[in-house]
Amino acid sequence: MSGVTARAGDAPAISVSGIVKTFGDFRAVDEVSFTVPRGTVFGLLGANGAGKSTLIRMLCGILQPTSGSATVAGLPVATRSDEIKQRIGYMSQLFSLYRDLTVRENIRLFGGIYGLFGSAERERARWALSVARLEDRERTRAGDLSGGYRQRLALACALLHEPAVLFLDEPTSGVDPLARRSFWDLIDSLAAGGTTVLVTTHYLDEAEYCNELAMMHAGRIIATGSPRAIKEEVPEHTVPTMEEVFIALTERAEGVRS
After folding, report:
1. Would the CA dihedral through 172, 173, 178, 179 be positive or negative?
2. pLDDT tens column, 51-93
3. Residue 245 and residue 237 in contact, taking contact as beta carbons nearer than 8 Å
C-alpha cells in the first residue's frame, strides 16, 4: 500500500522523543522515540500489553507523559493537548459508538462534539454514510450492525471534522478477515488524500500494509523502518514472515536485557 510521500522540509506529523509513562513502579512506555511523516500510514505493532495503547493515548492528549516530549500536528502534547484534540481523529478499540442510537444519531452526536451543525453537519453526514456504506441504514441501531459496519461507522465518525492526523487503536480487532482487508483499503485511500494515519495492531500480517513501522515489546521500540527494511534485520530467514521477524527481534531484545 502506498501513502503520500512527505515533501522535503515538511515538519513531521508526529514527533516523539524519549517519552516515558510510568504507573507506580511499572514503566508502560520506556524511552520511546520515532517520527511519522505527513500523509503516511505508520504502524505501531506489538503483542497485547506492549504499551501501544498507552503510547497512543499520550499522543492524543488523554494521558500526560511522565517524561520525554512529543508533538502532534506541530503542537506539544504536554502543554496543548486540548488544541491537539481538535486536530486529530481517534478511534479506540471499542469503536466509541453508542449502540442504542441509530447510525444517523451517532453521526449527529459526533458532529456536534466537533462543532458541526446545520448544513455543515448534513454535508459531512452524507459523506460519512457514503464512506461507511450505510446510506440505506440510517435508522438502524449501531448495535444491530455487523462488526465490519460498526468499524466503518466509527471511522467515519472520527473523520467528520476532517482531522490532519488519525489515530486508530487496534481498529481491526474482532472483525473478520474480509472486513479487515476492506478497512485497510479505506485507510490507504485516506493517506493518499493527505491524512496521516497512526494505527496500532497485534495482527502482524497487517504490517505489510504500512509505509513505516515501529515494533514495540515491553514498552520499548525494538525496530523501526519500512516493512522491507525491518525484514532485512533478520538475515537468518531468507524470506521471513513478519511473525518470524517479530519473534527474532523480540528474542534479540530480551537477550540484550538479560
Report:
1. negative
2. 999 999 999 999 999 999 999 999 999 899 899 988 999 998 7
3. yes
Average pLDDT over residues 203-226: 93
pLDDT greater than 90 at residue 42: yes
Q: pTM of the entire structure?
A: 0.88
Phi, psi of 204 (to 5 degrees): -65, -25
E strand or H helix that includes residue 255: helix 242-257
Q: Please say if the pLDDT value at position 163 is more than 50.
A: yes
Q: Which residues contact 46 (CB under 8 A, 6 or more apart)?
A: 52, 200, 202, 215, 216, 217
Cα 117–Cα 89–Cα 202 angle in degrees, nearest 5? 145
Q: Which of 162, 158, 180 is nearest to 171 (CA)?
A: 180
Model pLDDT for residues 8-19, shown as the tens digit of each residue: 347 899 999 999
Q: Which domains does the chain carry?
A: 14-257 (3.40.50.300)
> What is the secondary structure of 11-42 as a DSSP string?
PPSEEEEEEEEEETTEEEEEEEEEEE-TT-EE
Pairing type for strands 212-217 and 196-201 reads: unpaired
What whole-number distance in Å separates Cα of residue 241 and Cα of residue 221? Answer: 19
In whole angstroms, give the CA distance from residue 66 to residue 141: 40
- Distance between CA atoms of 11 and 199, rounded to whole angstroms? 20
Cell numbers 468499524 correspond to: 151
63, 108 Cβ separation under 8 angstroms? no
